[in-house]
Design goal:
There is one protein chain. Helix 2 links the parallel strand 2 and strand 3. Helix 1 runs parallel beside helix 2. The protein has a single domain, classed as Vaccinia Virus protein VP39 (Rossmann fold), CATH 3.40.50.150. About 30% of the residues lie in helices and about 25% in strands. It is of the alpha/beta class.
């Protein structure tokens, strides 16, 4: 299933860069982020089988860390990334979807939980990405986020200076989570904890009203 309405196409350079870096992606981020990923994913229930969306699944680094009882849908806009993710899904129930996190090809309230790891600071429209995740989970469901965010009014001159280039080829460095959340009604913050790099990377759990 592929959605033909794909806002990510507004940044063709980003699509090209992820095609090129897919083989190197794991070498760069797997080990440094392992502990933080693991802690974030502890927010998933481990006692009741449910349906979980992995929005922006990338090369599947989360997959070996996931509880085996759930049914997962792993979505990414990059075929090279999904191809690398598939072997990591061994032992899990996984449906693979090529699609856009900002225009999810699913009906409303399809999932119990959504995992957004390192995707809100990549997409051109983070509020749209979060809104789509909220749309597709059931009332009472959770959105589990792990990403790098600036704090409100945080200056971070170097990150902001690098952002015009980094957002074109890999990731954004100027996303303020509180600004993103303000644009998506109906979500309540359950927890928000620093996970890495002095709190630049945060683990956030949201619940849908």
């Amino acid at each position: 299933m592929v959605n033909t309405d794909q806002p990510y196409r507004e940044n063709p350079l980003l699509r090209l860069s992820y095609n090129l870096i897919a083989p190197l992606y794991d070498l760069v981020i797997e080990r440094p982020l392992l502990k933080a990923r693991t802690k974030s994913l502890c927010a998933l229930p481990s006692d009741v089988a449910e349906k979980v969306l992995l929005s922006g699944a990338g090369t599947g680094l989360d997959l070996p860390l996931l509880p085996t009882l759930h049914r997962y849908t792993a979505l990414d806009f990059n075929l090279a990334m999904l191809s690398r993710a598939r072997p990591r899904g061994t032992g899990l129930q996984v449906d693979w979807v090529l699609g856009d996190s900002m225009a999810l090809p699913f009906a409303d309230a399809q999932f119990d939980h959504a995992v957004l790891h390192l995707i809100l600071a990549v997409v051109p429209q983070p509020a749209q990405c979060l809104s789509e995740a909220a749309r597709t989970i059931k009332p009472g469901g959770t959105i589990i986020i792990f990403d790098k965010f600036l704090r409100p009014q945080q200056r971070a001159w170097l990150r902001r200076a690098l952002n015009p280039l980094s957002r074109r080829i890999a990731t954004r460095m100027d996303v303020v989570f509180e600004d993103v959340l303000r644009e998506v009604p109906g979500l309540q913050t359950v927890s928000d904890v620093p996970l890495l790099a002095g709190g630049w990377f945060r683990g956030i759990v949201l619940r849908k009203d």
